[in-house]
Amino acid sequence: MVQTSIDTPSPLPPPITRHAAPFPMSRAEPWGRRAGSTTCHCGEPQAVNWQIEAVASALLLANVWLVARRSMWNYAFGIAAVSLYAVVFWRAHLYAAFGLQFLFLALNLYGLINWRRSMAATGEVPVLRMSRLEKWLTLGGTLKIALLVGLLLHLTTDAAVPFADSLNTALALSAQFWQARRRVETWVLWCLVNLVSVGLYASQGLWFTSAVYAVLLAVALYGWREWRRVEREQV
Questions:
Q1: Alpha-carbon gap, residue 225 to 124, rounded angstroms
Q2: With the C-alpha atoms ordered 58, 61, 64, 65, is the resulting torsion angle positive or negative?
Q3: Quick one: which of 55, 70, 89, 120 has the most CB atoms within 10 Å?
Q4: Are the beta carbons of 109 and 209 closer than 8 angstroms?
Q5: Exposed, middle or buried: residue 1 (CB in 10 Å: 0-12, 13-18, 19+)?
Q6: Any bridge partners for residue 12, and if so which?
Q7: Which is nearest to 152 in space by CA: 171, 176, 169?
């Protein structure tokens, strides 16, 4: 705070107190942030340990590539990646993404069991198509989860981008579940997740992770083509 006196002029400017702060600069609110929120995380994403983010991103790339190749080893990389990303997303105030990592951990374990059973029965990991009912249930469930989680984050937390965060959460949950069930359409969901993620993480200053998700989009397109080829050859 700057102290001034109107009674006794001073030849020198008055000192600025130690705790004086500059006037805040206005900035546009990110997509999905609460109107009127006074919490600003504009400088906090830089505090995220970039080494952890880099290692997690590398593990995630390996995980998705191995999924596309239908390798059982994908789960080792996937479990390690979600553990590190939990730290990254917590520090970036992406709470839905943080909580999602624990669900990812459970779904990775479920997928590991499911894929191992298929491998034991057939000697490989077969892939299947979603039924019409499964598609409608996925669409309805994804939209409901996105809305409910978005409202919860909007009303109860200082989440940076609650509705974009919740949409990504719902899409990723659906994609991970159907990946564990070996459905070809999981790659369509992963493409949507990657598209949302590129913008979401860039808006929070997680530039390395945003770039990784751009690469993951290309890998998801490859996985979609590869699983469709395998599914046709199984018929």
A1: 18
A2: negative
A3: 89
A4: no
A5: exposed
A6: none
A7: 169
